[in-house]
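Quick log. Single chain, no ligands specified.
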Amino acid sequence: MEIMNSAPPPSRAGRPRASAENLNTRVSSRQQILDAAAALFSEAGFSGSSTRAIADRVGIRQQSLYYHFAGKDDILAELLSGSVRPSIDFVEGIEAWVPDELSPAGALFALASIDARTLRRTPHNIGTLYLMPEIQDPRYDAFRNQRRELRAIYGRLGAAAAHPDVTGTITEERIGAILIQLTEVVIQLRRDDQGATGDDDATIAASCLRVLGLSTAEISAAREEADRITALVQRSAAQPA
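-> predicted structure:
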């Protein structure tokens, strides 16, 4: 039956859809919501953002947002997890190779580089929200546990890579806390006028080894090893399952 060009029909029950002019078909609706929320959380803070404002920025109805997320708490939880989970997944794939096939220094350089890159690429510098008081809510236990897990990995690799005069004066737990804070300096770099670049990833990784007492030559060797292992991991990930 031919549809006449007249007033639009009444809305039907079911999932509302975005308007055609606002819908980016190359990016999933879920990802568009995450990107919009990251922008709003960074601009207005978590408490200053609403699901209606997020939906408006995407160009969808508020009900459509609830098809993907129960609320803005779930959105923030996914954004936060996305800032640490890739680093954990990466290092879990290589830590078993230490020390037989990969040196602790090489593994640590690779981890710090990947972690800095992940934080550098998160939408709208979501890492700036790490210190929000809302993050202490039990709803974000998963993120805090993931970050503690990552910090512990930094501690293990750092303690194994450090020179004896360093490990003799500082605990593994403290090493982990220092190294993860060094890596997260990229969050502050992104807030500065010059921003953060790909060159900063390697600089930050080298700084992690430097505080552990490694020499310039040892850091260079670790970087070469990290480059090889990162390329290998990336090729493996690209292989079909």
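The mean pLDDT is 85.
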